[in-house]
Amino acid sequence: MKSFFQICVVAIVGAIVFCDAFEVCGPGTNDDLQSETAAAYERAVDWLMTEQNERYGWDHDVTSRVVLSLQLTKDTWFNCHDLISQLNVKEMEIELLAKLSHASSRNDDSDSDEDDDDNGGNNRDPVSAGRLSYPIMALHGTCHDVTNFHGHDLIELLNRKIRKYPDGDFNQFFQYAWAVLALCTTNSDIHNDYIEEIRQGQHEDGGFDLGTDVTAMVVTAMSCVKKNTDHDVDDILDKAVDKLLGSQKDDGQFRNINTNALVVQALTAAGRDPTSWHCETVMQHILDEQEVSGAFGVPVLTTFQVLPSLTGTSFADVSNAKCDENNAGGEETTTVLVDNENATVAMSLTVINDISGPGELGTYQTTIMFGMNLYQAMLQIQDETNGDFNFVARDTAWGHSIQTIDGVSASVEAKLYWSISNEDGRSNTGVDGFFPEDGDHVYFTYTSWA
């Protein structure tokens, strides 16, 4: 089965969606921790959405970071059927264009990352290499061409700024690692000099100036470089990972919530065995820091940093693999996911209950518009059959969670859920990420995840 979204095995149980790709501490993650983490993620996302300003962005110059984190941790977040996510991304574009215009008027994109204000002091460059990395990765993940963003080649601009390191407030390896990571996740060329700069900045013990946070960010960037390029970075990576592991305290923490989150992502990106660094203990410390509101720590920035940890991902996983290669966002348009308003899809849906029922409960045929997901198809079938086919779903931060079909309910206590499959086998996504193809026969089967 083809899918435009991340491949993972989904089991929908009550209000929680378990996904193999999102097991926070790898295969075998404790079920209670997995459930608690999924609930924490949902609360954090809900809180983030309440923090939007009237322009559908976030104050204090963090819109691109929030968009990046939301799209990374739920790659169906930005889609052609969700107006709010499109407005969020549009505001990110507007903010970046304003910064680029301001920098251009002061020649900041060709001169120093440090500029003088009217009083003889210094202002931050709004598009320094470190700060430019966030919108580049967020734009790439939401189907934009970052080499032609309204006439701006953001990759070429980023390279020009990296080559001037250290310059202005682009002067430490936390920012430098983010810049290299932006090149890596966008499949851009990474110059040998950039890798050598990091190698020369690494201490003999594997760490970097300013401590564990920086070392963790370097590990994340180098993990991406190792996976996606021909650069040999094993020496940097191995020493840095050893430094991280050696900094773990007796209680399992690495320092505070920000450091814990960064290290969890770094070691996840580096593929280190989660049991070797007591991942579940670290995650519990992170979860314990969540406020009643859903926020973590110093609200938006910390929450942005924590979200990937809650889904077993890292910023090295940013990708535009779900975008239509022939329809990427360009200068004139913001492109979302694949859509074709003139095409239709004929499909069938069969409901099976072999556990507490007679087997097949019913088969239904319908024709939907191309680009509609399974959830939308189910709504259409329910309407067309006047409720002969009926279901109940809860809208969660992970997507729609199917609770009941034709009166038969999922149960956390009994470990029963509705699985999704078609003729190719079990579905790789939930109902929001499953996009039926013409001729698809979809099966909902009441089964156990025990």
What does this protein look like?
The structure is a single chain. The chain is 39% helix and 15% strand. Helix 6 runs parallel beside helix 8. 47% of the residues are buried.
Features of the shown structure:
single chain, 450 residues, alpha+beta, five-stranded mixed beta sheet, three-stranded antiparallel beta sheet, 12 strands, globular, disordered N terminus
Topology of this protein?
Blueprint: E1 10-13, E2 16-19, H1 31-50, H2 63-73, H3 83-105, E3 114-116, E4 122-124, H4 129-141, H5 154-162, H6 173-185, H7 192-201, H8 212-228, H9 234-246, H10 257-269, H11 279-288, H12 299-310, E5 344-353, E6 359-369, H13 374-384, E7 391-396, E8 399-405, E9 408-409, E10 416-422, E11 425-426, E12 440-448
Parallel strand pairs: 5-12
Antiparallel strand pairs: 1-2, 3-4, 5-6, 7-8, 8-9, 10-11, 10-12
In short:
By secondary structure, the protein is an alpha+beta fold. 39% of the residues lie in helices and 15% in strands. The strands form 4 sheets. It has a 5-stranded mixed beta sheet, covered by helices on one side. Strands 7-8-9 form a 3-stranded antiparallel beta sheet, covered by helices on one side.
Element string (H = helix, E = strand): EEHHHEEHHHHHHHHHEEHEEEEEE
Backbone structural class? alpha+beta
> What's the rounded overall pLDDT mean?
84
Instruction: Using the alpha-carbon principal axes, give the shape.
Output: globular
* Radius of gyration, whole Å: 23 Å
Specify the biggest β-sheet.
Answer: 5 strands, mixed
Task: Find the count of extended strands (DSSP E, 2+ residues).
Answer: 12
Number of helices: 13
Task: Give the CA-CA distance, first to last residue.
Answer: 25 Å
- Residues in helices, as a percent range: 25-40%
